[in-house]
Specification:
By secondary structure, this protein is α/β, with parallel strands linked by helices. The protein folds into 4 domains: about 120 residues, Beta Barrel (OB fold (Dihydrolipoamide Acetyltransferase, E2P)), CATH 2.40.50; about 160 residues, Rossmann fold, CATH 3.40.50; about 50 residues; about 50 residues, no CATH class. The chain is built from 13 helices and 15 strands. Helix 5 runs parallel beside helix 9. The longest helix is centred in the last third of the chain and has 43 residues.
Length: about 425
């Protein structure tokens, strides 16, 4: 008994403490696994039923992920299946409540379905609509973020099904409209659980090529379940993050996957996509001819208008007889010269007469004229000199008392005299 206790106490408490010399018993490992798995909660998962076998009260089915190559076998009681209004079949899309079970004796892990419900079209549509509203709230559908398509793409990336009618429609209609168009084609699965991964891979590959000007994702019509990959959130975000403009051409006019909302251009059908991504060479040539005709008519009208204008200018008198303008200006110059000469002559004559008049006035006011009329200027012979006038002039008898030496200036010259005394003039 003591040896068993000692052996039990030497077992490692955790898996990290085990070693080749001190391992866990297999029973302990299985028990711990079972305890851990039993604590794991149940979970609702979505998938597609690809296998379904009934065996008595048990049924065995295999669920596959709707977007990836991942499958999971599970068991379910037949009474759970019998509760369904519509019997489950292979290919049915379901949501199931799964719980992991670990069989201790055989070490086998199994999945047990506690409940299962089919996903109807109404559920799918409601789920798509909720996702559409959530993405719209993020702004992924705004027109401001959509990129313009090139007027004439040199190379078009085409993502479509393998040898599909959509591929043929796009290639044929694009070639009819513009024969020189080039395509970079990626054939992928356009439905099923691998469609999303393949489409995203092709999109990223084409988006990384600088020579690709626009990418078209095309698929023909189909049931709602077939078009579900084009409403996948991962694909929608990949298209929103693409640098190259993306055109959505999925199904028919009535089909509206979320890809149509996020794409830079929505085409109602693959044929419509071909018509909208490349111009019609016939229409473009017609526009070129129309433009050339308009240019030709415009040039002809311009030449005609300028010709009439030149003729009108040539018919004017100034151009018909250009020497008349020179003659007129010459006459004006001669007339102005005559007027100038007459004005100058008149001004000179008037100035000469004025000069003669001023000379006469100056002579009339000259002292010499006064002397010529018999007057004399009497000056003191010994008096002080007056600046500018010589000696002091005698203006009063008192200035020359008797015996004063005088100098008398008359018209003919000067002579000396002596005063004999003066007399005041009588008052009148």
């Amino acid at each position: 008994m003591s040896e068993d206790v000692a052996a039990a106490t030497t077992v490692p408490a955790t898996a990290a403490e085990t070693s080749p010399d001190n391992p866990w018993p297999l029973q302990l490992m299985s028990q711990k696994l079972k305890m851990h798995i039993d604590r794991a909660p149940s979970a609702w998962v979505e998938g597609q039923v690809i296998e379904l076998n009934r065996r008595g009260t048990n049924a065995y089915l295999t669920l596959r992920d709707v977007d990836a190559e991942i499958s999971l076998p599970a068991s379910v009681w037949t009474n759970v299946l019998d509760r369904q209004e519509t019997p489950l079949e292979r290919g049915s899309r379901v949501v199931a409540l799964l719980k992991a079970d670990f069989w201790l004796k055989t070490g086998r892990l199994s999945m047990s379905v506690k409940d299962i419900r089919p996903v109807g079209l109404g559920d799918l549509l409601a789920r798509i609509e909720r996702l559409r509203q959530a993405l719209a709230a993020e702004g992924l559908f705004l027109d401001a973020r959509k990129k313009r398509l090139p007027l004439l793409p040199h190379r078009i990336g085409l993502i479509t099904g393998r040898d599909s009618d959509a591929k043929k429609d796009v290639l044929r209609n694009a070639a009819l409209r513009w024969p020189a168009v080039e395509f970079e084609i990626r054939e992928v699965a356009v439905q099923g659980n691998t469609a999303v991964a393949q489409i995203i891979g092709a999109l990223r590959e084409l988006d990384a090529r600088p020579e690709v000007d626009v990418i078209v994702i095309a698929r023909g019509g189909g049931a709602l379940e077939d078009l579900l990959p084009f409403s996948n959130e991962e694909l929608i975000r990949a298209v929103a993050g693409a640098v190259t403009p993306v055109v959505s051409a999925i199904g028919h006019e009535a089909d509206r996957p979320i890809l149509d909302d996020v794409a830079d251009l929505r085409a109602s059908t693959p044929t419509d996509a071909a018509k909208r991504i490349v111009p019609d060479v016939v229409e473009e040539l017609a526009r070129v001819r129309q433009a050339r005709d308009q240019l030709r008519r415009g040039a002809a009208r311009l030449v005609e208008r300028e010709t009439d204008r030149l003729a009108s200018l040539r018919s004017r008198p100034v151009l018909a007889s250009p020497e008349g303008m020179v003659t007129t200006r010459n006459d004006d110059v001669e007339r102005l010269k005559g007027r100038s000469r007459a004005a100058i002559t008149t001004a000179v004559v008037r100035a000469a007469d004025q000069l003669i008049h001023l000379k006469s006035q100056i002579r009339a006011l000259s002292p010499q004229k006064t002397l010529d009329r018999g007057y004399a200027v009497v000056q003191l012979a010994g008096g002080e000199l007056v600046p500018g006038a010589g000696r002091e002039v005698v203006r009063h008898p008192g200035q020359a008392p008797s015996g004063t030496a005088l100098t008398v200036r008359v018209a003919g010259g000067r002579f000396s005299a002596e005063s004999t005394g003066g007399q005041e003039p009588a008052d009148d």
